[in-house]
Specification:
Elements (H helix, E strand, L loop, with lengths): L2 H8 L3 H9 L6 E2 L5 E2 L2 H15 L4 H11 L7 H41 L5
Antiparallel strand pairs: 1-2
Length: about 120
């Protein structure tokens, strides 16, 4: 399918599809006239990429490790999947640590505001 239809089917803009290609995340086929040709497997990959990007994973990590996640055959597919999962867990743990710091800061601000509203913080 051409880029317009692929964008419609995947829910990703044509511009995003071109960006994914520029970043090496997808490699659509080409028609004889040079137009991109998106097969169902590429659309499935786009959906995985979109989901991973929406969860905050960096493009670098997705580009390096995605082949193992999408079930592409290859000698290192299982190792790539395990590595990808470790990287995702590490990213999640770093995110959780940042959330904890921000929660502590929010609690401190809440305490300050409570005190200020009682007249103690002028």
């Amino acid at each position: 399918m051409r880029i317009g239809e692929a964008a419609s089917v995947s829910g990703v803009s044509a511009r995003s599809l071109r960006h994914y290609e520029d970043e090496g995340l997808i490699v659509p086929g080409r028609f004889g006239n040079g137009f991109r040709d998106y097969c169902p497997a590429t659309i499935d990959r786009v959906l995985v990429i979109r989901s991973l990007l929406e969860s905050g994973l960096p493009v670098r990590l997705i580009r390096e490790l995605l082949p193992g996640v999408t079930g592409e055959a290859g000698a290192g597919a299982d190792a790539g999947c395990a590595e990808f999962l470790r990287e995702v867990e590490d990213y999640r743990d770093r995110l959780a640590a940042r959330i904890a710091v921000l929660s502590d800061r929010q609690a401190a601000l809440d305490a300050y505001l409570r005190e200020a509203r009682r007249g103690g913080g002028r």
